[in-house]
Design goal:
By secondary structure, this protein is an alpha+beta fold. It has four domains: about 1-75 and about 215-260 and about 345-410, no CATH class; about 90-195, no CATH class; about 260-345, no CATH class; about 420-510, no CATH class. About 45% of the residues lie in helices and about 10% in strands. Helix 15 links the parallel strand 10 (about 360-370) and strand 11 (about 385-390). The relative contact order is 0.15.
Length: about 500
């Protein structure tokens, strides 16, 4: 499935880490991973330093279990694994790290281990305090280097943090293997997840379920859909954007939104615009709010209201949150804002298979040059082609990823740049297809920029010279041709800020 010449293709990319790959291999696969649908040339580097390249046919959303969304939909994340501590593990840990206590964090780990001895004390936060310690930090690094017999002390015999950092350089792979073994000295081998994270933490006890791929996937599937993440920031503009994400039903649906995937600079402009609009709306809604609009919870209330709003329940949702006197004009502005969110550019679309994904469903892996041999072997044993990038030069990661051309998919090359997108934005019945409105508007705007440039370089220049020479000869401008106007006039998106933003931003991206 190749990419048409001159058209940047899409691909399924899942970012992960050696630790997650090892855990998933042990548990039987990856339960409901979030996979980015990104575009050739657009970096996608978050969530781990390994990028797995998916075979499109394995993640085609026309298959019922393969869900996909038009943006990051804030779908449910896998629960974190937890383990119980061995009896008196906190005492053993205290003895083992007494020499490194001044380097910090050891007391916190002792408290966590003491709690983890009891089922009622098992929590993700306690286990994270324990496990994070062994991922790195002055104390664990110093102990590692001591066991290697490396000199990390000053003349008085005190541990020198500068020496620790210097001597640790280049030992990451060796440290990761050693540290993992050290951590397991203090915990029982069985791994669980907490199936009732929303319990009453005062009276409720955690329900521990064996951490297998099937168990985790079943738990996650019950929490499928948009905006299932929890924690801080879940009512902000990004979460509001997630709530307006559309479910995509096929690879063609994904292809139709190719132009909505933009680079970070363009995405930042869009985010700033939507944030400004949100704060403006929140300010104007204060007059209709029957509670204290100066409360620190006010913005969260506005955000939560917008997230729960649909085209049909707008007025009722406003009243539910205490906005009883909002004018019809303000209600319409909120609806326009929701449409603006829906049409705004994205860094990537999200594929969310509601099943266990096996490693051999990926065909390629882009890994740092210093990847440990064990993780490389795991990838190669799954039949995955491994390519490396320089972790000190971030752009090499994207460039290496984009060499997997055979796994890219894209609409056919069209018009000057995107004319066919414009024609396909209309359904056979003559109605606007909402999935194609944004890319069609982008294609139209980009065509307009191209035509303008060609007019300047061609007809305009020729006509200017002709006029200066006194000749009446004129070359028709491309922009005056009926067929060209058809592909540059736009109008596929509804009038308003979203359309204006798309056409203005696209004009800045013209290829000449």
């Amino acid at each position: 499935m190749g990419v048409a010449s001159g058209v940047r293709g899409l691909l399924f990319a899942h970012n992960t880490s050696p630790q997650r790959l090892a855990r998933e291999a042990q548990m039987g696969g990856a339960p409901m991973p979030s996979i980015g649908v990104t575009k050739e040339g657009v970096p996608f580097d978050n969530f781990g330093d390994i990028t797995l390249i998916g075979d499109p046919k394995n993640f085609d959303p026309s298959v019922r279990a393969n869900k996909a969304f038009s943006s990051d939909a804030y779908t449910v994340r896998a629960p974190s694994p937890v383990q119980m501590a061995k009896k008196d593990a906190y005492k053993q840990f205290g003895d083992d790290f007494a020499e490194y206590k001044d380097l910090g964090a050891t007391d916190q780990v002792k408290y966590a281990l003491e709690a983890l001895e009891r089922k009622g004390g098992v929590s993700e936060s306690n286990f994270n305090d324990f496990s994070k310690f062994f991922e790195g930090g002055p104390a664990i690094k110093a102990k590692f280097l001591d066991e290697l017999g490396v000199d990390i002390r000053d003349a008085s015999g005190k541990i020198d943090r500068r020496k620790v950092n210097e001597q640790f350089t280049g030992r990451d792979a060796e440290f990761n293997q050693w540290s993992s073994q050290q951590a397991q000295k203090y915990v029982e081998p069985e791994t669980y997840f907490i199936s009732n994270p929303d319990r009453d933490y005062v009276t409720g006890r955690p329900k521990l379920v064996e951490y297998t791929a099937d168990n985790v996937a079943n738990w996650m599937a019950k929490r499928g859909g948009k905006n299932q993440e929890s924690g801080l920031g879940q009512t902000g503009v990004s979460a509001q954007r997630a709530s307006e994400s559309r479910q995509l039903k096929s690879l063609d649906d994904i292809k139709s939104l190719r132009e909505s995937v933009v680079d970070e600079e363009t995405l930042d402009l869009a985010k700033q615009a939507t944030e400004n609009k949100f704060f403006d709306l929140a300010e104007r809604l204060k007059g209709a709010y029957k509670y204290d609009s100066d409360s620190f919870r006010y913005l969260d209330e506005v955000g939560e209201m917008i997230i729960g709003m649909t085209d049909r329940n707008a007025v009722n949702k406003l009243r539910e949150f205490g906005f009883e006197d909002a004018s019809p004009e303000l209600v319409q502005e909120i609806q326009d804002y929701r449409k603006m969110l829906q049409d705004s550019p994205v860094g990537y679309m999200e594929s969310k298979p509601e099943r266990v994904v096996q490693l051999d469903e990926y065909v390629g892996a882009v890994v740092p040059e210093n990847l440990d041999a064990q993780t490389r072997g795991l990838l190669e044993d799954a039949g995955i082609e491994v390519k490396t990038y320089d972790p000190d030069v971030p752009k090499t990661r994207t460039a290496t990823r984009d060499t997997f051309q055979s796994q890219m998919f894209s609409p056919a090359a069209v018009g000057a740049t995107a004319g066919l997108l414009a024609t396909e934005a209309v359904t056979p019945a003559g109605q606007l297809n909402p999935l194609l409105a944004v890319p069609a508007e982008v294609g139209s705007a980009l065509n307009e920029a191209v035509v303008g440039t060609l007019d300047f370089l061609g007809p305009d220049t020729i006509n200017a010279i002709s006029e200066l020479s006194g000749s009446e000869f004129r070359v028709p401008r491309l922009s005056e041709q009926e067929l060209v106007r058809r592909y540059t006039q736009g109008g596929y998106m509804d009038q308003g800020y979203g359309r204006d933003f798309v056409r203005t931003a696209t004009g800045l991206l013209q290829p000449f």
